[in-house]
Write a structure and sequence with these properties.
homodimer; about 450 residues; 2-methylcitrate dehydratase PrpD; 60s Ribosomal Protein L30, Chain: A; 2 domains; four-stranded mixed β-sheet; two-stranded antiparallel ribbon; 21 helices; globular
Chain lengths: ~450, ~450
């Protein structure tokens, strides 16, 4: 029997489910600045490269193998592969792939990786419905706005409780985006949000396992199905987000309701999206950035006597592995990350392969990296000095690493990152064509040509 | 970036994910008493009747319409209908149908409705894999044991926080059951539990909408997919349930870990399962029971001057609607429930139809029902006096209503309930055959004949 106790219920929460639903259903197409629209394209192509790049990873393989037990209809493209599956399964598998290398986008205010759940749901739906590229980008902006705004309401307390916020808000963004793409009205969109609200995904305990990338994948699938169910008349509470026993009060001790609606339709959360230049945790990025810059100044590994780092305490707490044995361990090694930055001028997924991690040159250089905590250095910065064999000392202070909000990756750098991921899977020619399709997607009558380029080539 | 705060983390939780996985993978087939095995059959056939009975409800229709957008392969039976869909979609749709009328089973210690998530996942999987009926019943007992034991760990605090515990533990029971049916080993079963742990379903805010029955349906689907993913090598934390950022610490302030494993393999939670004789909230059942007994004593509506009830306060708080306007409202009316009990001798879904609710005879009799709170009466009891026109007063005290643990429905009563639900959908002949198949399922080499009887007949 139902009990009536609710812990510290807020009975006067504003109707954010309704407000967000009206916004998603009614905001005009491209109702934002050129800068926001450009950021949406950057978000989309960064997500696309990540999903293609991990198309053959064992996590993607295992998820796809499970999905194939359902004998899915060949409705939609699995990015970077030859198989086709139903659109909901494509959302799941592409979402898993896009987060597998931890190389996707980050909304730094909430550490949500927003594209995974939203774009992974939208692209297969657009493929099936024949939606235009403009509709896809509109839905991406609005879907990401919903999940990140909900994230702003509850972050950081919700995350501190142990939820992986990317998945636990992502099903709302995916539902909102898909509702928009399907042309649902505000009532139906509220139902889609409500149906999704009952199905959050993601525990931080899963970090380090395949279930971490499962979170955006499952959130994408859930959001897509929620929108389809709402379209068919399935119902949910119209106050599913804010009611005393609704998602957010169940989820989080912090409830900054105003974050859901402040400047709604004026400020777009996708503006605050960032992209990782390096395929590892953000705390080591300033150190890598410095080492890449040293290489650009002409410093070669054989010139180096020692690399001295002064860093924030979190760097050694999270990434202090001195002698990582394999690629996975190397993701948690500032020593390895700095060594590959200086040797290769990058630290993409390839630089965290077992082969690179155990190569003689890398092992030798990372033993020359010395890191110490300096209380004056904040999380976003690093102080790096290269002590050379000829006695020179070259000093660099990185205030904000490349990829931060303050120092965003250039379009050119995003393209280079894209090629680094997509070329090995699609071949360079297809990858180049896919990139062109992504930049111009908003002008495309549908997404067919784009997804056609994202299929694994015979020669790859 | 990851934060390190966890609210009141229990760092010394026992390894319940592992213990439950070993139990599910290794417990012998039919490793329990005849009474437990019989209860499993009762649970199964009660679930089957509920799923068939709501096969054409608008919630089932809407969910099926959404699923059909995926062009699913015709792998598995949608109970009570002609359509076939992939096994995961069948789990979803059958799970929704089984809980739509709130007429399914209840594990009273946790108010979990355990069969919905577990049986809805198992039957389509058994249909596809060709599993035997014995394997199905084994998996049902073990799956229900997992979800109810997890429920015991966290109830009632988890429910009080706002989670619909049927869905938020159900994906674990479904994953465990499906892992057993697939013959996964303990390592794989732990992964299945872990994958499912990231995907809880269910908010109490959804009560009164179609998203309430969505919860067991989505939990069934999630658990089935988790087991398939684990079989294909997908990974999760092996401590996904108990770790400081695992499901249960994230979920609930109460963590009675011992409940997960006390008498594991000796005491089976399915023993405590109960079945509703009446299609409405449990608090009004004692009153209905009394009125059905009055009818059995020969009292006819036209004999009645007044029905006087003394009840627990919760009855009027939850079910105090005097003049319900339609079927949905009538579910919350002790007055309506008692009237139909006396007139029809039952209170199944049909007695909560709009037609019955507005019929003259029912309206007239319910106006003769007078209810008052009596502090001496507990939640499970009711004191009922029929005051007749001829001056007689007939008094009944119901200590425990029919359907409670203390006064379980007989097999015969369960069969009558089954026919009440299945006959209108399947026709009486098919329903009779289906019932026979359900009682003898453990002897069947596979479930083909059973699901064949559960398809909507041409004449129905």
């Amino acid at each position: 029997m139902a009990r009536n106790t609710t812990v510290q219920a807020d009975l006067h929460a504003p109707p954010i489910t309704r407000t967000l639903a009206e916004f998603v259903a009614q905001h005009p197409s491209r109702g934002w600045s050129d800068a926001v629209d450009h950021e949406a394209h950057r978000t989309f192509l960064n997500w696309l490269g990540c999903a293609v790049g991990a198309a053959h990873h064992e996590s993607t393989q295992a998820a796809l193998a499970a999905v194939q037990m359902l004998q899915p209809a060949p409705q939609a493209t699995v990015l970077g592969r030859k198989e086709r599956v139903d659109m909901a399964s494509a959302a799941l598998v592409n979402g898993i792939a896009s987060h597998t290398f931890d190389f996707d986008d980050t909304h730094l205010k909430t550490i949500i990786h927003p594209a995974g759940p939203v774009a992974s749901a939208l692209l297969p739906l657009a493929e099936v419905t024949g939606a235009s590229g403009r509709q896809l980008i509109d839905a991406l902006v609005l879907g990401i706005d919903v999940s990140c705004r909900v994230g702003n309401v509850i972050y950081p307390d919700h995350y501190d409780r142990g939820w992986h916020i990317t998945g636990s808000t992502g099903m709302l963004g995916a539902a909102a985006g898909c509702a928009r793409l399907l042309g649902l009205n505000a009532d139906q969109t509220a139902m889609a949000l409500g149906i999704a609200a009952s199905q959050p995904v993601g525990l931080r305990e899963q970090f380090g396992t395949m279930s971490k990338p499962l979170h955006p994948g499952a959130a994408a699938r859930t959001g897509l199905m929620a929108a389809l169910m709402a379209q068919k008349g399935f119902t949910a509470s119209p106050r599913a987000l804010e009611a005393p026993r609704g998602l957010l009060q169940v989820f989080s001790p912090k409830l900054a309701w105003h974050e859901a609606t402040d400047d709604l339709g004026k400020r777009f959360e996708i503006s605050f999206n960032t992209y990782k230049p390096f395929a590892c945790g953000i705390v080591v990025h300033p150190g890598i950035d410095a080492c890449v810059q040293l290489r650009e100044q002409g410093i070669r590994p054989e010139d180096v006597e020692r690399i001295e780092l002064k860093v924030h305490s979190l760097v050694l707490e999270l990434c202090g592995k001195k002698e990582p044995a394999d690629g996975l361990a190397a993701k948690f090694s500032i020593y390895h990350a700095c060594a590959v930055g200086l040797i290769y001028g990058r630290a993409a997924e390839g630089e965290f392969s077992d082969e690179v991690v155990t190569s003689e040159a890398v092992v030798a250089l990372r033993r020359k990296v010395v890191a110490e905590v300096d209380e004056r250095i904040n999380e976003e910065s690093a102080d790096v000095t290269a002590v050379l064999r000829d006695g020179r000392r070259i000093h660099l202070f990185i205030e904000h690493a490349i990829g931060s909000t303050q120092k965003p990756m250039s379009d050119q750098a995003l393209e280079a990152k894209f090629h680094g991921q997509a070329d090995p899977v699609l071949g360079a020619a297809h990858a180049t064509e896919l990139l062109a399709c992504a930049w111009s997607v908003a002008q495309a009558p549908d997404v067919r040509r784009l997804v056609g380029c994202a299929v694994a080539s015979a020669q790859a």
